[in-house]
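To: structure desk
From: M.T.
Subject: fold request, one chain
Message: Could you run this one when you get a chance? Sequence is below, nothing fancy, just the single chain.
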Amino acid sequence: GALGETRLQLNRLSKPSSDPFGTALKDIELEVRAGEILGIAGVSGNGQQELLYALSGEVPVGDAHAIVICGKPSGRDTPDQRRASGMGFVPEERLGRSAVPRMSLTENALLTAHRAGMLKHGMIQFDRIAAFADKCIKDFKVKCGGAEHAADSLSGGNLQKFIMGREILLAPKLLVVSQPTWGVDVGAAAFIRQQLIDLRNEGTAILVISEELEELFEISDRIAVIADGRVSPAKRLADTNIDEIGVWMSGMWERNIAAEVAAYD
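Reply: Done. Structure tokens follow.
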């Protein structure tokens, strides 16, 4: 289908890492449009974590225009402001960042869903949250004892389905996901990938950061690579293959692109 408007644009996003062993982000440029999945491949430790923190707003960026979410310069926005602009977010660490281990699924639903009509005059609408959590469990086939059970009582795959479901039910305009099927069983992985494809088909812009190349080739429309804090140009799947992306993962894309350009001249 035809792509819609740009929902995420990064304009020369640069950010030193706060971790002495981390990776600085260097002049990252990319865009994700409505109705597409952009996959970012890379070997762990090449700036994925820093990119996610910059995108989520956990680590604000000095230049507001370095990150534009749904047309709004958002580099200095808080995570809440970014969600209000239409962004959903699924970090890699399920327990701790995505869900509070000892809290029930209903309470965990409130963490990000509170903007979906679940607060009225500052009061929590508990019946609405419970209904939302139940819908999430049902729609995303989460195996659990019920919405009142604690997040850490679920298997990794079921907790991941709940977290993905919570974000998808909020109908984000832009969804940023890290390692969507890391450590989950084959059945849950296939289900989660299909949910991402369905969400894209409904017009959401999706950015998926994953170390699983096969996964990215299965779900992405375009694919780019992150290496040493830099992001390669994105290629349509039809124009690349696993071998080329593998070479790019070592940071060697400039040479390839120069060769391609020379071949056209």
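Reply (cont.): The chain has a mean pLDDT of 91. Let me know if you need anything else for the meeting.
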